[in-house]
């Protein structure tokens, strides 16, 4: 639960090549040197331990694909401070290029830690938003960044499915969805819609045991 409190979440507005976008934004500090955090973000041998296995041409302008179906192009790469990629999901997503982008910025702190900022921008018409709100992507990123914390602390590879099935993981998901609901409200979301989105997001990531 401390990991949830360590992050600052916000929902905002932005743009992607396809048009106006909403953004989900996560900011936090990692107790690790900036080069170590950058390596965890870009080294395939470490990336799969907190995110997913990745293949492709992993350089500026190259295309990548994650084991879960997420794929895109590396748009900016400025070691060790900035990484920006297009972020599409599923085989049909290529019909709508420029609809979703993820950007990560790193900055060293005076204490030697690393300030971390992730912004995921997606077009306003993105189909998951009306049902799930910002939690559609926000809870997923919270889970992966929890695993990144574990990796940077010298822990083992994350088992995302085991986390989702554990009582602690389900409580993490519930609180993460609620936190993104609060960010949605702060951005002007309608309370009834926000409550429904939080409930739908929680059920999606942590369905009732059968």
TrEMBL record:
Superkingdom as given in the UniProt entry: Bacteria
All copies of domain Activator of Hsp90 ATPase homologue 1/2-like C-terminal, residue ranges: 32-152
InterPro entries membership: ASHA1/2-like_C, START-like_dom_sf
Family: Belongs to the AHA1 family.
Protein name per Swiss-Prot or TrEMBL: Activator of Hsp90 ATPase homologue 1/2-like C-terminal domain-containing protein
Organism of derivation: Streptomyces ureilyticus
């Amino acid at each position: 639960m401390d990991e949830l409190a360590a992050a600052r979440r916000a929902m905002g507005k932005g743009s992607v090549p396809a048009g106006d976008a909403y953004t989900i934004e996560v900011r936090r500090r990692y107790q690790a040197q900036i080069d170590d955090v950058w390596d965890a973000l870009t080294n395939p041998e470490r990336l799969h331990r907190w995110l997913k296995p990745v293949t492709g041409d992993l350089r500026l302008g190259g295309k990548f694909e994650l084991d879960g179906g997420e794929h895109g192009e590396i748009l900016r790469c400025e070691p060790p401070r900035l990484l920006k990629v297009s972020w599409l999901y599923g085989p049909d997503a290529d019909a709508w290029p420029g609809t979703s982008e993820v950007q990560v910025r790193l900055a060293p702190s005076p204490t030697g830690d690393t300030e971390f900022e992730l912004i995921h921008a997606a077009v306003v018409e993105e189909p998951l938003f009306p049902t799930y709100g910002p939690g559609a992507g926000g809870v997923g990123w919270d889970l992966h960044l929890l695993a990144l914390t574990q990796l940077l602390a010298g822990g083992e590879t994350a088992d995302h499915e085991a986390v989702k099935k554990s009582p602690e993981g389900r409580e993490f998901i519930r609180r993460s969805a609620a936190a993104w609901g609060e960010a949605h409200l702060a951005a002007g979301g309608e309370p009834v819609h926000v409550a429904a989105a939080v409930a739908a997001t929680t059920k999606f990531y942590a369905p009732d045991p059968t």
